[in-house]
Amino acid sequence: MKEKIITFLRQNGFLLILFICVCVVAAGTIYVSTSELREARNGADEELVILEEIENEDYEKASTPENIEVSHIDGVPNEEILNNNELDDELVNENEVVETSTEEIERIEFIDDYEEEDDDEDKNLVMDEEKARFLPVDGEIITSFSDEKLIYSTTLDEWRYHGGIDIKAPIGAEVKAPLSGTVKEVIEDDLWGICIIIDHGNGLESKYSNLGTKEMVKAGVNVNAGDSISVVGDTAKIEMKMEPHLHYEVSKDGLKIDPRSITE
Fold first, then answer.
1. Which of 70, 217, 246, 249 has the most CB atoms less than 10 A away?
2. How much is the pTM?
């Protein structure tokens, strides 16, 4: 038996020693790791305890009567004074909210009223203007005003907007000013022929095209409603294929509007 052990140690002694060394190293590593983990946990617990103690001390300091500003009233417990002060603060805050809300509501109502007034002014561009009692010539309106819907032009053979109205009338028919004003221009346009523009004030202007003469009025002349300013002609090349008519436009602050909107 002894000889067998000696033989075994001779043959496998190195491996046995190596195995023992590995076991020792592993055991040492496990021990060191376990010790470090235990120390880390103990340190964390100590920090948590310190933080809790600090929070408790701060809370106790804040809760002491010395750190609370309270007006002293003879015969009234401090607790009631504190409760009354808190109630007063709540009432003040509520009043501030109510006052702010009232001011905000008044401001919103003012803005709404102002916007409604603007809308009314846009919808009635000539609400405050003097209304014309008649059109410049008597006759049927053969082409209506259109700033949104396209209208077919027989002369141009295309669909286009029409910034005025065409009033059917024979050549030579008198054209009268529907409102009083000052003649702004008397021109001869390549497309619209002889044209007269009258300024009626307050941004309101009227234009008469396809006229037969420019000799009846001059620029700068004042005219009254009903005064003759020209006659119907056939000078507008842009509408030359149409039957005889007056092309009549009205603008408010530079924006073309339906001429019938200023006629009663």
1. 246
2. 0.53
